[in-house]
Structure formats: structure tokens, C-alpha cells
Amino acid sequence: MTTPTVVGIDLGTTNSLAAYMRDGRPVVVRDDTGVSLVPSCLSFHPDGTVLVGTAARERALADPEHTIFSVKRLMGRTLADLEPELKHIPHQIVEREAEAGRKVLRVRVGGREYTPEELSAMILREVRQRAGNPTKAVITVPAYFDDAQRQATRDAGRIAGLDVLRIVNEPTAAALAYGLDRNKSGTVAVYDLGGGTFDCSILQLADGVFKVLSTNGDTQLGGDDFDHLLMATAAKEMGLTPAGDPQLLQHLRDAAEKAKIALSAADTAVMQIGDRVHTVTRGEFEALIAPLIDRSLDKCKKALRDADLTPKDVGEVVLVGGSTRIPYVRRRVGEFFGRTPHTELNPDEVVAIGAAVQADILTSGRRDRLLLDVIPLSLGVETLGGAMDRIIERNTTVPCTGTTRYSTHKDNQTAILVNIYQGEREVVAANKLLGQFKLSGIPPMPAGFPIVLITFRVDANGMLKVTAKEERSGVEAAVEVKAAHGLSQDEVERLVLESVEHAHEDFTARRLIEFRRKGEANLEHMRKGLAQQGDKLTAEQRTTIDTAAANLTAAMAGNDVETLDRADKAFAAATLPLAQFVMDAAAKGYLGGKTEGDLDSDAM
Ligand code: ADP
Ligand code: MG
Questions:
Q1: What is the pLDDT of residue 215?
Q2: Which comes out higher in pLDDT, residue 491 or 443?
Q3: Quick check: 384 and 392 in contact, CB under 8 A?
Q4: Based on the domain organization, do 21 and 131 belong to the same domain?
Q5: pTM tops 0.85
Q6: 18 or 536: whose pLDDT is higher?
Q7: Sorting pLDDT into bands at 50, 70 and 90, what band is 395?
Q8: Max avg pLDDT among 136-150, 361-375, 561-575
Q9: Is residue 514 domain-shared with residue 443, that is, in the same domain?
Q10: Are 411 and 555 in a shared domain?
């Protein structure tokens, strides 16, 4: 066997493995018995030796206290991060002060303490050795991994003696393994059900580049849960009480997993503990796990919703993770998306294969399939009230252009200030100001009359040129800025994650801005309407309007979206008679004037 110099590694919660490319084809690294998966499991002996993989997993039966698994859950995390799931982690975890007040997690085992990076490195070293000790690797991580988790994974690779070329998202790797990057465009849904975690990712492909549109999942949902369900029913059936008996628990767990795997191929399976036997049918098993599969599909629904898509929009579905070998899972996922998912490759090997493809792309210099040259963070302008209006979305491949139409919000406004920002946040204050310029010389016109087209053009080198043109008069202005291309991949991931983290507060901030903008326009319309048709109102109608206007003004000065929403609705109801009069008088245009898209302006 030729030994590769660069491999792709899937460092999984439950299992890890490597693959590489030979003559343009992926090869999965296997042992003499054809097994590719290395259980992500470590067993520590009193004499200092450490077993990794299957051997460690087998020791887990006899020596549960000295066996470590699910290290991936600890990577790049602090004790505080782990708080909600701590009860699921059977190991002794301590937190120690490192340099500069930084805190590091350590796992206590066999009288010693190890960092998660060191433990993961032991797994990586084993995987690396099986592949013939390559020196370079691409390692995969879940799409939702943050900067610290990615950094920890990188460090683990380094400790294991690997030059980590890149950290790649698992769903992207899966799509690469299927060669879906060769399609011109399309949407890919990746359903990944592993041992302990579930992830659904929606990817969008444009010109051979994948963008992660959204991800959703459950860090406490996977094949282990199916095992637990089988364990519980079997224990009851067999009259066993495994609580407090780690050995019996481990036996039960082993029998349950074996039965589960058997049921993926057969209609019945038998669990045996000592002289007690329990038979399970596939139908019974499916009924047991149905609620959990429902839950996973619920997450898919959410991921689709976040990407503004419905199942019909998904072109390809890829199944990842050992648990998607279960026929019932395949059926349910197929029904949900309305199409047959990809299962041609082994679901527990597909991520490693994709990592190998990516490693090959990076080392062979085939730039045609390099997942680069996209706008790392969205580009846009500030609109009235400090909202970010994205003109070019992040991940758009360069070169590209985007145009949006705006107008003025004041009568006789002759200039518009264009503030250019980059970032994912909804409010410009949280994004990065790239540049600004003024479009002046707009002939005096009523508010909303000028047609201002703002065009963003990014060339192949990432240079951004922004032009603003008022269509009626032809006045034009332009500025050239350097898009923030200097960001490292990790920095980009962090910023994107930050926008996800702040999604809720940003959403609120944006709604506040929008309500205020709408309120201002409505008050202006009211003033114009009153000037023209106010005398037709009854005294009572007039008082109602004045009160509603005062309430709206007060709400606009505050920061409460609910209050603003109520004031907005009350104002709309109060001004209804006035609007009627204005319309009756055929004074069109006052209440119909479009106000959205007004640019912020410090116009003189
Ligand atoms: P992870 O990504 O979490 O490291 P894997 O993708 O390797 O894990 O999935 C491991 C899970 O897949 C385990 O729960 C295992 O029991 C389950 N699994 C493996 N093969 C089968 C099968 N044929 N039928 C059902 N479950 C399976
Ligand atoms: Mg996995």
C-alpha cells in the first residue's frame, strides 16, 4: 500500500477515521479486517499505557472509570459552556487557570489530568498511524463549531504531529464526497445522525462553492439514545435493575447496540444478558424511536425556515452518520424532503471521504474546486435609523454586483450620504464601516421622488466599488473601497457566529428602527392630511388622532417594540377617518408614498 502524505480526518464524537485520494479516487483507511471506524474512546491503565479505539471500547466493560469517550463535546469549551450538559458527561472534569487568566478544562483519569486537546490528539495519533503516518491533514468539525472549538481541533491535530491544512465543516465535506460541487447550482440538505448528536445543515451551491445557509440540531440526540430506549425496555422485560451497576449497564448497552444494528438488516433481533433473553421486532424499535426522529425532522424544519426555504426547494439530500443506516430513518427523511436521499457512500465514512477530497484540492492546487473567493461577510449600506441593508450577501462568489433602489425622506433633499458597511449584524453600529461618500447635486424634489440606485461591484481581486446615481437628474458619485478580505477564515466564522448569537437582539433592534422610521413617515402623512382635510373631522375624531399621535411619538422615543407595535396599530386605527377623507378628495400620493428604503442622510 502506498502511504499518503495528506489525509482527511473525521474526528467524530463516537467514531473517527481517515481517508485519502489515490489516482483521483478516495480510499478509506481500514485495518486488516476491513474496519474503518476507530471508536473515539480511550482507556487508561495503571501502568501508564493508553488504549485507543476498539480495544478501549472493549475495556469500557471491565473498567468504566478509566475509559473516556465523547471528548469532542469538551473541545474548546469552558465549564460554564458545559453547564447544561454536564449531567450527561460521566467523566471527572476540572477547570484550571492557565496563562493570562485563561481557563482550561481538564479530564481527570487514572490519577492524571488531560486537556480535551491532548485526549483528541491521542485519537488523532491512532488514526494517523493507521494511515501510515501522513504529516498533513484536513480535519472536519460540525458547522456550528465556534472559533474556540475549531482552534482546539487544530491544536489537537498539531499535538498529534499533523500540519492541519484546514478545518472543514462536516456537511460541506459530505457534499464534496458526493461531488455535488460539480453541479452548477442547487440546494443541499445534509441530515447527520451520529452516535450522540444530530445536525441538519442547509447548503447552497453556486458556481461550485458551498455556502452554509443554516444549521440546526440537537447535541443530545443520536444512536446512543436509541440504545438507551432499547436498554430500558429490555431491562424491564428481563426483570433487571441496572441502576448503580456499571458493569450490567455496559452489558445492556452493548446488547442494545448490537440489536439495533441487527435490526437495520433483519426484522427481529435478540438481546441476551446471562440467561435472560429479550426479542425486539423492527416495528417495535421504530415505534420506540419515532418521537426522536420527529424531533430531528423538527430541527430540519427550523433549518429550512432559517434559510427561507421549504422541503421542495431542496435539490439533494445527503445522509451522514451511522444512525442513518436505520431504514426507518431513511424512509422518514425521504418523506420529509420528498426525495430519495443519497446513501451510495457509507454514511459513517462520507465525511472523511469529503475531507480527503478537500485535502486533495488544497495540495494539488486545483483552484477550480477551491472553496475560496467568496465575499466573506455581507456588504451593504446604512439606511435611515442605523439599519444595515445588505446589497451583496456573504458567500457570494466574486466577481459580483448588486443594486438597490432608494429615495430621499425629506422634501427638497439635495444630498445623500452613503455609508458602506460590512458584516452580518442587522444594525450598522455592530458592523465594520468600510467607507462613505456623498451624492450631492440632486435637484430639489418632494421626498420619495428621486430614484437613487446604489450599485456594489466587487472585482475578482475583492476590490469593491460603490456608485450612487440619481436616475431622474443623472447625478452620480462613486467610491472605491477595499473589501475586508484580509480576514482569516476563523475570524470570519467568529463574526458569522456572532451574528447568529446576536440574532435575537439584532432583530429587535431592527424592528425598533423600522417602527420608528414608519412612525415618522406616518406622522408626516398625518400632518399633511390634517392640513388638507383636517376640517372635515369631528372634534372627537381629531382628539383621538392627537392622542394616538402623542402616544406614537412617546413610543418612538422609547425602546420597547411591543409598545411601538401597539402605538402603531392604534395610530393606524385613529387616522382611518382622516385617510378616508384624503382619499375621497382624491389627494393621491400622500398616504401611498413609499417610505421604505430611504437612506440615512445628514443632508444639508
Ligand atoms: P459520530 O459522528 O457521532 O462520531 P457515527 O456517524 O460513527 O458517529 O455514528 C455512530 C452511531 O451509529 C452509533 O450510535 C452506532 O450504534 C450507529 N450505527 C452504526 N451502524 C449502524 C447500523 N447499521 N444501524 C443502526 N445504527 C448504526
Ligand atoms: Mg459524525
A1: 84
A2: 443
A3: no
A4: yes
A5: no
A6: 18
A7: low
A8: 561-575
A9: no
A10: no
Give the CATH number of the domain where residue 574 resides: 1.20.1270.10
For residue 408, which amino acid is it?
A: T
Tell me which residue has cell 465594520.
432
What mean pLDDT do residues 275-293 have?
97
The residue assigned the cell 433602489 is 405
Cα 200 to averaged position of ligand 1 atoms, centre (Å)? 16
Show the domain range for 344.
Answer: 6-222+288-372
Count CB-CB contacts under 10 A for residue 540. 9
Of 372, 398, 432, the domain-final residue: 372
Residue range 66-73: average pLDDT? Answer: 93
Q: Do 342 and 421 belong together in one domain?
A: no
What is the residue with the minimal CA distance to atom 26 of ligand 1? Answer: 323
| Candidate of 260, 286, 323 to mutate for ligand 1, largest count of ligand atoms within 8 Å of Cβ | 323
List residues near ligand 1 (CB under 6 A): 12-15, 37, 194-197, 222-224, 257, 260-261, 264, 321-323, 325-326, 348
Mean pLDDT over each residue of the chain, to the nearest integer:
86
Q: Which ligand is nearest to the CA of 195?
A: 1
For residue 407, the domain's CATH number is 2.60.34.10
What average pLDDT does range 186-195 have in this prediction?
96
Domain match, 462 and 483 both: yes
Q: Provide the 3-class DSSP secondary structure of residue 18.
A: strand
Which of 9, 10, 11, 15 to mutate to test ligand 1, by most ligand atoms within 8 A of the CB atom?
15
**Stronger pLDDT, 508 or 29, i.e. the higher one:** 29
- Least trusted range by pLDDT, from 195-199, 297-301, 365-369, 553-557: 365-369
Rg of the chain over CA atoms, in angstroms?
A: 30
Ligand closest to the CA atom of residue 227 = 1
Give yes or no: 192 in active site.
Answer: yes
- Whether residues 49 and 126 share a domain: the answer is yes
Domain count, the chain: 3
SS3 percent helix, strand, coil of the chain, rounded to 5, is 40, 30, 30
> What CATH number does the domain containing 96 carry?
3.30.420.40
Cβ pair 68, 90 in contact under 8 A:
no
Q: Does the residue 192 lie in any domain?
A: yes
